[in-house]
Amino acid sequence: MSDNKIPYYDCSTLLTKVTTTTFTKAQKRWRLAYWTIYSFRAMLSLVPNKPKQQYSEILQNDPYIALGIEPSSSLHESKKSVSYSIDPNIDGARLTEIVKNKDLHSLQCFGGVEEVATALGTNPEDGIKGDDEDVGKRSQLFGINTYHKPPPKGFFYFVMDAFKDTTILILLVCAALSLAFGIREHGAEEGWYEGGSIFVAVFLVVVVSAFSNYRQERQFDKLSKISNNIKVEVVRDARRTHISIFDLVVGDVVFLKIGDQIPADGLFLGGYSLQVDESSMTGESDHVEVDSTNNPFLFSGSKVADGYGQMLVVSVGMNTAWGEMMSSISSDSNERTPLQERLDKLTSSIGKVGLAVASLVLIVLLIRYFTGNTKDDNGNREYIEGKTPLDDVFNGVVRIIAAAVTIVVVAIPEGLPLAVTLTLAYSMKRMMSDQAMVRKLPACETMGSATVICTDKTGTLTLNQMKVTKFWLGQESIEEESYDIIDSVIRELFHQGVGLNTTGSVCKPASGSVPEISGSPTEKAILSWAVLDLGMDMEKLKQKYSILHVETFNSEKKRSGVSIRKNADNTIHVHWKGAAEMILAMCSHYYESNGKIKFMDEDGKNKMENIINGMAASSLRCIAFAHKQISAEELEYNDDGNTSKTLKEDGLILLGIVGLKDPCRPGVKKAVEDCRSAGVDIKMITGDNIFTAKAIATECGILYFDQQAEIGEVVEGAEFRNYTPEERIQKVDKIRVMARSSPFDKLLMVQCLKQKGHVVAVTGDGTNDAPALKEADIGLSMGIQGTEVAKESSDIVILDDNFSSVVTVLRWGRCVYNNIQKFIQFQLTVNVAALVINFIAAVSAGEVPLTAVQLLWVNLIMDTLGALALATDRPTDELMKKSPVGRTEPLITNIMWRNLLSQALYQIVILLILQFRGESIFRMSPEENDTMIFNTFVLCQVFNEFNARKLEKKNVFEGIHKNQLFLGIVAITIVLQVVMVEFLKKFADTVRLDWVQWLACIAMAAVTWPIGWFVKFIPVTEKPFFSYLKRSRFIFTRIKQAVYRKRACSSRLGTP
User: Fold this and answer.
1) What is the dihedral of CA 149, 150, 152, 153, to 10 degrees?
2) Signal sequence: where (predicted)?
3) What is the C-alpha radius of gyration for the chain, rounded to an integer number of angstroms?
C-alpha cells in the first residue's frame, strides 16, 4: 500500500493469509461473507442433479477491492466513527471517473456513498474540518474549483486590431511614400519631417485607441469574475456557512435547494424530492430524479429543479465535465448593444458623406495641381508639364492623397463606438459600487427607457428581516408571556411541524450560546420562534422521528408538507405548512390550547378567515400549520417501495397561525416617488394575501394612504389569469398591486405590458421567475435571496435586494443614454465643421488649411479624450424628471441638431474668415495664419466640450467640480496643444504665436459659450427633424405621381 494504490485481495486471502488480530472491521465482514458462501456451497453440493458450476462461480470471480475503511449503516453511525483524516490510499481519479460515467456498480464496490465520504475524511453531517491546513491539503491532493480559461487578449492584440482599419493603413502607406520622397529630395536631416510626423500621429491614435479598448476588456473580465463568484452553502466542522464556489474542495458537504447551480461533481448524501436539470450538460430538457439508490450522481453546471438535499463533493474544477467544457469556451465581451448597433449605422452614414467629400477634395486638388494652379512655399508653380521632376510629382500627389485620406479619418466618427464602450464600462463599474451588477451590457442602456417596473415585495420593498409577532392557536390569540398554557401535546406537534418540515437548520454551538439558525428569512423566523419560545430541541427531534416523504415548497403551491414516523410507537403523522388561507381550506378541525380538537363548521372557518385578514391588514405575513395522524394503511407506495409522492391534503386539523412582520425598507417610499416623477409606473407583484399586499403597498407609497384604492388597482393572480386577453390588455395599465400571484401571472403581466408598447423591468428571485425575467426587457434578479437560475436568467443582479438600488439602475440607464448623446453632439459638430472648411478651402484656394498631422491630432482629441471627458458624467436629479426615452425615439434629437449646427456654423464662419482674410486682419505671415486656424479650431473644440455637458440647461458649469476627470482631460488637452504649437513646429507644421495671437485664438474660441447659451432660448418642436424631410419626399412623390397620371390621361385622350 506504499504505492498509494488500492490493494486487491482474493477472498481466500482473508481466510488463509491474515491473522484475526490484524483484521479491520471491513475484513472481518469479508471473512464472515466468505464462510457463509462456502458453507452454502457445501450444503448445495449434497443436493443431487444440480450443476455445481453456477454456485462455484462466486469463488472464481476476479479479486475484490478491499477499501480498508470502516462502513457505516447510517449517517448517524458515521458521525460517531468518521475522523477528519483522508485515506491516503483513496484514488481521486478513479472516483472522478465513477461519477462522470455514472458507474453505479463501481460505486457499490467502493462501499457506497457513505464509504466514499469516510475515505475522503468527511462526516456526512458535520462536513470536513475546514481549517486552512485541511482545505490546503485537499486542494493539493484533488485540485481547486476553477477551470483553465483561454488567455485574455493582450495589449498588442488591440494594437494589431487597430492597424486593421483601412484608413489607418492608407495613411501609413502615404506616410511611407512621403518619408521616402522627402528624404530623397531634402536629405535624411530635413526630409523626414512630413512623413515621420504622419507616422507618429498615426501611432499615437492607434496606441491610445488600443489602450482604451484593452482597459475596457480588463474591466469586463473583472466584472465577469465577480459575476461567476457564486456563494455556496456548506457545512464545515458542524457549522453551516456560505463560501465562494472557488473555495470549494473535494469532501465538502454542499446544501442544495431549488434554483441552485450544482457547483462541482458529487454524490447524493441525503434529501427529498431532488430533481435536477442537466440540459446544460446533456441537452435533455427532462428533469432527472436523484436518489441514493438508483442515481446518486450530481454534475457541475446542472440546476436544481425541485426538492432539496446534500451533496458530497467528489471532483472539482478541471476534473469535472463542466470544467473541461468551459475551459474551451472564451468569454465574448464583444456583445453589441442596441445602442451600439444604431451608432454603427450612424457611423456608416457619416462615413459615406465624409468619403464623398474627401473624394471631391481629392479630385479638385489633383485637377488644380496638374493644371498648374498650386504654388509652393516660394510662390512658384508646383507643376509645370514636362519640367517638374517625377519625384516632385509623386511627392505632391502623395501629399494630396494624404490630405484627402485624413479628411476621411476625421469625418468617420470612430469615437462613437469607443464612447459607448467607455460609458458602459464606466457605468458598470459605478453601478457595482451602487449594489447592481450588470450581467448583460444591453441592460445598461435599455433600463433608461423603462416605463414600468414590476417588483416583488419581500426583501425588495421590505427588509426581509422576519419575526413572529402574532400567534393564534384555534380562535385564541396567544401572547408571548402566555405560551406556558399550551398543552404539551400541542407543543410536540408544533415541534414536529416546524422542525421536520423545513429547509433551514439549527446548530447549537459548543459554547452553549444562542443557537445558529440558517435558511430563508421566513424559515429562520419560524425556527427561531419554535426554539426560543416553544423550547424545540432540533437534535432530539431528529432522533425521535424518521422522515418518510417530503413535498417541498415552491411559489406555485405556496405550501410544503412532510410525513414522519415516530420511532417509539411507529405512529405516522402528516404535517403541512404554508399560506394561511390555503392551509385553512385543507382543514376540517382545529386544536385548542388545552389539546382538545374541535370541529370547524362554516361559521368557524369564517372566523378563522377574519383572523387571517386582520393580521394581513396589519402587514403581517400569515403562515398556518396543519396536522393529521394517519394509519400505515393510508400510506401509498410506489413500485420501488417508496412512499407516495402525494401527502394527505384534506380532513386535516389546524394547529395554529403565526403572523410574521417584515418592515418596509427605509427610503423605499422616496424611491417610488422618484420613479413616479420620472414617468415610470410601479407595480407590486407578490404571493402574499391581498390584505397584506394592500397594507405594504400603502406603506411604500404604491397605493396612496389617504385615498381608497380604485376598482381594478388591486387584483389577485387568479382574477387576472381568468380575464380574457382583451380584458387583460385593457386593465393591465390600471393594476398597481397583484396579490396571491404565481410566476405564470407575473409572466402574463409582462407579456401584456409589452404588447401595449411598454419597456418592462421585472424583479425576481425564484427559479419559477426565470420565464418572466427572460421575457422582460430588463430582468433584475436578487443577489441575496435570488436563486442561481434566476440570476442566470436576469440582465442585472441587485446585490442588496433593495428597491432603491433598482431606482439607481434606472438613473444609470438614463445617464448612459444621455452621455452618449452628449458625445454625439460634440463629435458631429467637429465632423461638420472640418468637412465644410476643408471642402470650401480646397475648391476655392486649392489647399486644405489643416494638414494631415493636425487633423489626426484633432481626431485624437475628439475621439479618445473627448469620449473620456463626456462619457463619465454621473447621473443627476434632472434625469429623473424627464419622461422615459421611447423605443423608436431618434438618437439625435431636435435639441441636439439645434446645438451642433449653431456651433458648427460659427466655427466654419470664423475659420473661413481666417483662411481668406486672416493675414490682412492680423497682419501676419501665411505660416502664422495657418497656425492660428489650427489653434482656433482646436480651442473651439475644448470650449465646446463644456457646452456638450448640458444638452438643454443653460448653465453648462453646474456640477463641473464633481467631475475631476473632465477637468483633468481639458487641462491635458490645453497643455498638449501649447506643446504642439510652440515646441513641435516642424512636426505639427506650426510656428510660434505671440501672446496677442494666443489671446485672439482664445477669444474667438470662447465665443462658443455665449452662442451655446443663446441658442438654448430658441424653442424646437418635439417632432423629429428628419420626419420633415420624409414628409417633403412623400409630398414630392405624390406630386410626381399626379403629374405622371395627368400625362398618361392626356396621351390616352390624344391631347398634346
Assistant:
1) -170
2) none
3) 39
Nearest to 715 by CA among 743, 745, 744: 745
Looking at residue 29, its amino acid is: R
Answer yes or no: are the C-beta atoms of 518 and 504 closer than 8 Å: yes
690-694 contacts, C-beta under 8 A, 24 or more apart: 690/616, 690/714, 690/716, 690/739, 690/740, 691/613, 691/616, 691/617, 692/616, 692/617, 692/619, 692/620, 692/621, 692/622, 692/739, 693/457, 693/737, 693/738, 693/739, 694/617, 694/737, 694/739
Asked if 875 contacts 219 with a C-beta cutoff of 8 angstroms, the reply is no
* Helix and strand totals (H; E) in the chain: 40, 28
Angle at 149 between CA 144 and CA 155, to 5 degrees: 130
CA pair distance 421, 427, nearest whole angstrom: 10
Does residue 391 sit in helix, strand or coil?
helix
Q: How many CB atoms lie within 10 A of CB 153?
A: 16
Please count the residues of the chain: 1056
First to last CA, the chain: 114
CA–CA dist 746, 766 (Å, integer): 12
Give me the pLDDT at residue 337, please.
59
**Which of 765, 799, 762 lies closest to 434, judged by CA?**
799
Q: Tell me how far apart the alpha carbons of residues 841 and 360 are, in angstroms, rounded to a whole number.
A: 12
Separation CA 286–CA 269 (nearest Å): 23
Q: Which of 126, 252, 456, 989 is catalytic?
A: 456
Please give the Cα distance from 68 to 831 (Å, whole number).
Answer: 80
pLDDT tens profile 125-147 = 889 988 888 999 999 999 898 87
Contact 868/396 with Cβ under 8 angstroms?
no
Strands 505-507 and 476-477: unpaired
Residue 333, helix vs strand vs coil: coil
Strands 681-685 and 476-477: unpaired
User: Which pTM value belongs to this model?
Assistant: 0.71
Over residues 568-620, the pLDDT tens digits come to 999 999 999 999 999 999 999 999 989 999 999 999 999 999 999 999 988 89
Q: Burial letters for 49-73: b for 16+ Cβ neighbours within 10 Å, e otherwise?
A: eeeeeeeeeeeeeeeeebbebbbbe
Residue 291 among the catalytic residues = no
The pLDDT, as a whole number, for residue 1032 is 55
Task: Identify the CA nearest to 700 among candidates 584, 619, 763.
Answer: 619
Backbone angles phi, psi at 765, to 5 degrees: -130, -20
Residue 298, C-alpha cell as written in the block: 450530481
CA distance 90 to 119: 6
Which of 332-341, 416-425, 550-559 has the highest mean predicted lDDT (pLDDT)? 550-559
Give the residue from 790, 938, 172 showing the smallest Cα distance to 459: 790
Distance CA(851)–CA(23), nearest Å, equals 94
Is 954:1013 a contact under the CB 8 Å cutoff?
yes
Collapse the DSSP code of 1051 into the 3-class scheme (helix H, G, I; strand E, B; otherwise coil) and give the result.
helix
- DSSP class of residue 863? I
Residue showing cell 485541511: 134
The position carrying cell 475515505 is 119
DSSP output for 887-920: TT--SS-HHHHHHHHHHHHHHHHHHHHHHHHHHH
Beta bridge partners of 682: 453
**What 3-state class would DSSP assign to 785?**
coil
Distance from C-alpha of 868 to C-alpha of 823, rounded to nearest angstrom:
10
What's the rounded Cα separation, in Å, for the pair 340 and 526?
50
